[in-house]
Amino acid sequence: MLNLQSLSAFERPSALSLFKNGALFILSCLVIRFIVVSIYRVWFHPLAKYPGPWTAKISDFHGAYHNVKGQLHVESARAHKKYGSVVRQGPNKLIFDSVTALHEIYYSKDGVQKSYGYETMVPAPGAYNIFTAVDKGIHRFKRKMLNQGFSDQAIRAFEPTMLHHIDLFVRNLVRAPVYNDDNEGWSPPLDMTERCRHLEYDIMGEFGFGQSFQLQTKPDNHFLIDATTATSHKAGVIIQYPRLEYTQYLQLDKLFYRKGMEMREKFLRLMARLVKERLSADKDSQNDLFSFLIDAKDPETGRGFTESELWAESRFLLIAGADTSSTALTAIFFYLTAYPECYATLVSEILSTFSSPDEIESGPKIASCRYLRACIDEALRMSPPISGTLWREVCPGGLEVDGNFLPPGIDIGVNPYAVHHNEDLYPDSYTFKPERWIPSDQNPKEAVERARHAFSVYSFGTRACAGRNMAYMELSDAVAKTIWYTDFRRAEGPLGKVSAGVVGAKDGRQRVKEFQLMEHLTCSHDGPFLQFKGRKGRGQELFKI
Ligand code: HEM
């Protein structure tokens, strides 16, 4: 007899098996889709002819993975050595490492625009800042406005505030030592990453909000560094793999990164308080961005920044100005202590140029310090504070770069770290040689010009760094003052090796005289640990600050 019970059980599958079959079906579809898309990307895509790692050809996961590990810049240099001067670094992405490509891409007026990745950093619809504005009209307006805050006159007016923080920085270096006979007056090892970060964030707090975060004097706001670092780590990954932005809707941060969320809340509360306090003070009470820009107008349209636009720029400048300059300053300390002969030449230049610390400020004396400027540029070349590729999207009509016709919609760029370590452009590129920036009998003017043409630390064209002059002012004043007051050296033992490459390490991390950066939009690093000793008879005035 027919068993009706077993038949109905056979005909009506359980909810669990329905779910399993459904999931299996969806998974199979996804796998088939992945295989089909990968085949298309590897063999039939318009960029199929360009060489590169196969992982990069099939997915942007390649860039995101190396960015999470902080090594995409090193990976880019390695890829150029292996595959040549054009490398496919994503299904839709090409990187180049020639001077012509640098100029053809970043100086191009209509051929490119900032890539979609920048838009993923916009916190709310329409809330662009100068860095995230992809639209050229919006950017032009913001740039015209901000340029007024970065005029020579404005940054010279801000310099005394900057110098006050630099004095605090040097005072804390010479005050740190527990002087005793054993260490001959040398301080205990000090972590320069931390010291330089605190200095630069305090300076940018003054510039952007008219107030110091007091990181150099109190620990209360130290969380600020972790909060901004977490923001740039996340942005760095998403800019490489923009589709990951959709995972934000799942609010995974709330589940897995509760501490980060709390820090962000604290950060926003601090910013809100600073804005409120600045607004309650007289607008001309500080030489800060607010005072320079609140009444500024676009000469063509007569429009100015709204207050909220201005504060958005100030928040952006915190990362753009502080993270970059602090990496640059830390790198300079690293290289000067890795190359004692360069340190000695610089000390002699500074001590023979300035007879008093008050002379260390913008002007003909500091401008005459050619070796100082060469050391700064060489540290920036060796370890660019923005080491990642600045992606540009090819606009309708396409663009020709190094003789390659590139179709619209693809992302292209030149990786600054890779181009700065292209041996054809910078021979002996992993050696710190400030002399390469100074014309001499051994180094003709043409060689210096060639080096300058490929120097892409601030980028080129309309989107190049707006704060470049201010960065040079900070770096020159800080290095010159530190040398005027102190003698410094690398700590001995294991601490002295922090931030250096490690012999035998893989993937380009083996050079002991190279400052190691972890690239995440801006860069993370640790160390170097240095010891300081005040120069005899100098520094009494610092203790009165
Ligand atoms: C050594 C220090 C610095 C380095 C290496 C650096 C590097 C850069 C780079 C590479 C860009 C282009 C970014 C892109 O195309 O996506 C940029 C943009 C920018 N930087 Fe800097 N920067 C430094 C310091 C500063 C400082 C101190 C400030 C301001 C106080 C600043 C303000 C800006 C602004 C406003 C932009 C956006 C420019 C635009 O899109 O029009 N930077 N910077």
From TrEMBL:
The chain crosses the membrane at residues 21-43. Its cofactor is heme. Pfam families: p450. Its main location: membrane. Heme binds at C465. GO terms for biological process: verruculogen biosynthetic process. One of its GO terms (molecular function) is oxidoreductase activity, acting on paired donors, with incorporation or reduction of molecular oxygen. Keywords: Heme, Iron, Membrane, Metal-binding, Monooxygenase, Oxidoreductase, Transmembrane, Transmembrane helix. It is found in: Membrane. It comes from the Eukaryota. One of its GO terms (cellular component) is membrane. SUPFAM superfamilies: Cytochrome P450. The keyword tRNA processing does not apply. The keyword Heme applies. PANTHER family: CYTOCHROME P450, CYTOCHROME P450 MONOOXYGENASE. Belongs to the cytochrome P450 family. This is Cytochrome P450.
